[in-house]
Fold:
Amino acid sequence: MILENRPQGVVAGSIPLFAGHPSHELLPIAGVQRAVEAIWRGGGVTRLFDYGDEQGNAQLIEFLVERLNRVESLGLRRENLMIIGGSTCGVDMICDQLTRAGDVVLVDAPSYRDALHIFRDHHLEIRDIDIDESGVMVEEMERMLRALAAQGRAPKFYYVVPNFQNPTGITLPEPRRRAIIKLSRRYGFAIVEDDVYNDIRFGDDLPPSFYALADGENVLRLGSFSKTLAPGLRMGWLIASAGRVAGFVGSGLLTMGGGANPFTAAITAEYCRSGAWETHLQWLRGQYQQRRDIALAALDAAMPAEVSFTRPAGGYFIWLRLPPSVRVDELAERAKQENLYFAPGAGFFVNPADGARHLRLSFSFLPLTDLRGGIEILGRLVREMSA
Structure:
């Protein structure tokens, strides 16, 4: 029997409009191969098979600190950054270090479903705050904070995907970021900034990060190579105050197991330091922008007027709101009969019923013909159900 490895959750022969993965066509396989060969030629290969430094590969840390300072003027020092096994690992580590069962954390409604899963794994009390077309509604956040304070409680952190949010594709504007930082200082909670889509932007400008606006005070920012290089490398980074990073580095997990993925960290460092990653990023943005444009044009053509959807300026995702006559669970069943899969909205809300009329589409993974064809099928099904 031959077992076939497929991307996470993908059914053979299907049209997976849910898949928030890089397309196989966009993976820099040849470039990574050259990085591996360069390491092998350079000697000292045995070091790749050792436990790594708890903070992570020194060359990769050096590269990221220099790049982030050059691009964003963050003023980072080496002790502000550590290598982690992808942003998911970072979210879990933060929960381990900052929370205990029963603590309150704040999230957007909707928010990244796998982060919600991790918060539930840690038995945290998740409070969600409504968003509008510009992101989280600060007035609603302040109202919730006042209510918690009246009970003698405060959240441990606010978790946010600030740029091209998963699932909506929305980017939080700078004035709201500043207002949230003021609230975090007044009520004493941290901000966990999951910024994995930062480099997949289709214009030149993004609002300054929470980390930049707060001068690094009580902000933990996550980055990842999963979206711009390859998710299978399981490589990301966390930036925070030197004290926070030291706490993570000194955790039992890392003192027992060493730094994150030393083998792939060395390959990633070689790839990045050669200049290949920057070149790949410039090309990749054009490829994803083309996919976004194709997906939006297909939605404009296929969907009835009662369906609304976001028009993201980067990232992977488009968020749809269905008319009252169409329930997303029924739509998912009909789509499944045509081998079409999308991400129903329920999983992105603390209260699943809030997602009964929403769904998320990804334009990152599918071949262009399947992307167009899948949206055409979805549009036909919505029209049939709303007729």
